[in-house]
C-alpha cells in the first residue's frame, strides 16, 4: 500500500510540474504570437521590415534567406513532433512505455517544441512587409483594435479549453483517475464525445487563425508562421457532420442551462461529457 501511495504522489507531482511548464509555455506563446507583434505598432517603433527594399533584392539577401531557413526548420520541428507522437503506431508504443503519463508527455514535448521555436525564431527585418498600416489615424487605432480582438480571441480559446475538459487534455485527469483506480477518463465520456475528441482534441481553429493573421503589419517571418500553422490546423482535424451535430446539441444544452438555470440544475443535459450515454 505504501508503494502504491508513493507511486501515486510521484505521478501527481510529475503531472503538476508538466502543467506548470505547459501553462508558462502558453503564456509565452500568447506574448510571442500576439502582443510582441502589436507592441511595435502601438509604440511607433516598428522595425519589423524594410519597405524601401524591393522583393527581388530581399530574396537574394543572405541574412533574409538564413532567417527564413531557420524559421522553416523550427516550424518543421514543431509540426513533426505534434504529428509523429499522435500517429497511432507511435502513440501505442508510447502508451505501452509511459502508461498513464502518455498524454502528459505529449503535452510536455509539445510545450518544449514551442519553447525551442519561440527562443530561436529569427525575425526577417531585411524584407518588406506584405502589408503595413502606418498612416494616421489608423496607425494608432488599428493596432488597438488588433489588441482588443486578440484579447477576446485568447479569452474564447481559454474558455473552450476549459469546457473541453482541460485537466484531461493535459494528462492531469489520467493520473488522478489512475490513483483512484477509475481507469481512463475518456471511458467515462459518451461515445459521441469520444468520437469528437478522436477527431479534434482542441477546437480553436477559427480564433487562432484570427490571431495569426490580424496584425497591423505582416512581415515575411510572420507570413511563414501564420501560413504553416493555419495549414496544419486545417489538415490536422477530421471533423464531419456527426461531430457538428453533436457540438450543436451540446451548445443548445448549454444555452438552455443559462436561459433556465433552475430547470437546468434539476435535469442534466443529454449526452453529457462527464457520463456515458445510456
How does this structure look, described?
This protein is mainly α and 278 residues long. It contains 13 helices and two strands. The protein has helices spanning 2-43, 55-58, 62-84, 88-98, 102-120, 138-163, 166-170, 172-180, 191-199, 205-213, 220-236, 241-259, 261-266, and strands spanning 131-132, 217-218. A two-stranded antiparallel ribbon has the order 1-2. The model is unreliable at 272-278 (pLDDT under 50).
**C-alpha end-to-end distance:** 35 Å
Task: State the helicity in percent bands.
Answer: over 70%
Q: What's the count of strands?
A: 2
The radius of gyration is 22 Å
Q: Tell me the strand percentage band.
A: under 5%
Regions with pLDDT < 50 over 5+ consecutive residues? 272-278
Task: Give a quick precis of the structure.
This protein is mainly α. It has helices at residues 2-43, 55-58, 62-84, 88-98, 102-120, 138-163, 166-170, 172-180, 191-199, 205-213, 220-236, 241-259, 261-266, and strands at 131-132, 217-218.
